[in-house]
Design goal:
It is a single chain. This protein is α/β, with parallel strands linked by helices. It has 24 helices and 19 strands. The protein has a 7-stranded mixed sheet, sandwiched between helices. Strands 2-3-4-6-5 form a 5-stranded parallel sheet, with helices on both faces. The protein is globular.
Length: 630
Amino acid sequence: MVLDKINKVGDIKKLSSKELNILANDIRQFLIQGISQTGGHLASNLGVVELTMALHLAFDLPKDKIIWDVGHQSYTHKLLTGRKAGFEELRKYGGMSGFPKRKESECDAFDTGHSSTSISAGLGLAHARQIAGEDNYVVSVIGDGALTGGMAYEALNNASHLNSNFIIVLNDNDMSISQNVGGVSRYLGSLRTDPTYNTLKEDVSNTLSKIPKVGKKIVKSISSTKESIKSLVIPGMFFENMGITYLGPVDGHNINQLRRVFAEAKKMNHAVLVHVHTKKGKGYVPAMKEPERFHGVEPFSVETGLPKKKKEAKTNTDIFSETICELAKNNEKIVAITAAMPVGTGLKTFANLYPKRFFDVGIAEEHGVTFAAGLAAGGMKPFVAIYSSFLQRAYDQIIHDVCIQNLPVVFAIDRAGLVGSDGETHQGIFDLTFLSSIPNLSVLAPKNQYELIESLKFAESYDYPIAIRYPRGVASSVLKEYYQPIELGKSEWIRSSVNNELAGAEKKPAIALLAVGSMVEIAVEVEEQLNKLGYGCTLINMRFVQPLDVECINQLLKEHDLLVTMEENIIAGGFGERVSSYVTEQGSDRKVIHIGIPNVYVEHGNVDLLKREVGLDKTSIVEKILKNLS
């Protein structure tokens, strides 16, 4: 296998042309077999095998810098930089990340995980190179989907002013940017990069300008005509008009073509965009047929493409999907918005049932939120379904466009809390902190699937901004028998053993467990363990992080010695600190301890394992409580 010859960065340059073609096939087979065992991002990686190989052939890493937008397509890059062995522990705790990581390799120029960032980062590296007087190349790879994000255009606008080389590779895997116009485009692209052609343009222009009276008019007329013709035959005039040279489109699976166009791009002394066409999932039929399903996959059968593990019980995403479709049946004002994730957020069914009321805004969370505000101002009832980690990108819009105006937008926040294998950039552990700081915004975290349904119903009739956050994975059925109707800012008193006689128990401190959302299930386990140890406990499902149920807290302060707040969110600025602040304001001497995630970035790994690592499992929580009591 030719792939066995790749042990470190640069080894690919030792291969013959014949070996390069074999290597591309080896890489695809390695990825298909490996990801079928570990899970991971498949379709996107299969689509960029030749593109990545060409980049490694054309540039010298780690001196030259390649920035991968989002980064879920960097597996081939990792193979070519000597990390083949790491794929056995891909996305596992302590193992290799599924995204570029600077701490993992000096060949990873920039950490990525969210979309539309690579041009900005690359432009920064290019300017840093200029200031430092260095001579390396900087390449930013960005997909056509990521160009729906406004940040990419902000970066393109700035890149047009750069007076040194900066290469942007547009990986177009759906022909959504422009149509391939064939030979004319390739010819004019190579002609524009020819130094003799550029020199000739300048000489002719200077000569004509010297003709008395009419010279400058002639130059202007020729220039205008030239641009008109170019706009008819060159698909990249949008970039050209910004001052960025456009090359392409190029077959992204033809290594020789790619190497030639990169050689041309390296001649530029300004920003240049190379438009590359690729096929997502190339080399594996199931992934080519269903690239969306094979974007991020769990372990699967290579023969059939089907998951090895049968689908478990309904997920919270499934519950949201079913409920919003049911609500929309009787309420024509309900509209649904997602940012390029109709399947991931559960809105695919809604889109099929109510296509005129469904909006996929692309990878543009900021626009999506303000768009929802406009819909709400126009009398609609928008449900904005976005992953917790991606909602961070729209913080200003939530404040400025939704909450200041007190508009009735519902934020359905999926993947709240620890999400696992995607790691730091995808953990949804900040939303309680940043959302509960916003006036006018109610923040609700249901304890189980039944309360999620009721929360969505409550939000439908609520005339102000509200956020409902729920975790990834199978929907909980904990405490199904306990349910009190949802009332704004009111918690649910589950049960208490504080005034009960516990068998063989001497008088011990009374403990109140104030749990939020997914932590209610763990709080039940903690309560049972503390009861066995002779402690009286009161279990509260807080439901609302904002507004805070101060009446409940006041009552707990009268009857308990210790308040324990529990949240799957960072402690800093979260629910627990809000409770502590209130208790302090009341002048109470009761102790409050916080169970939550330390103020750190949590790496990738199995969710249960991560919970143990950050202290959100039953054993760790009980130990912390007992330590504080002692």
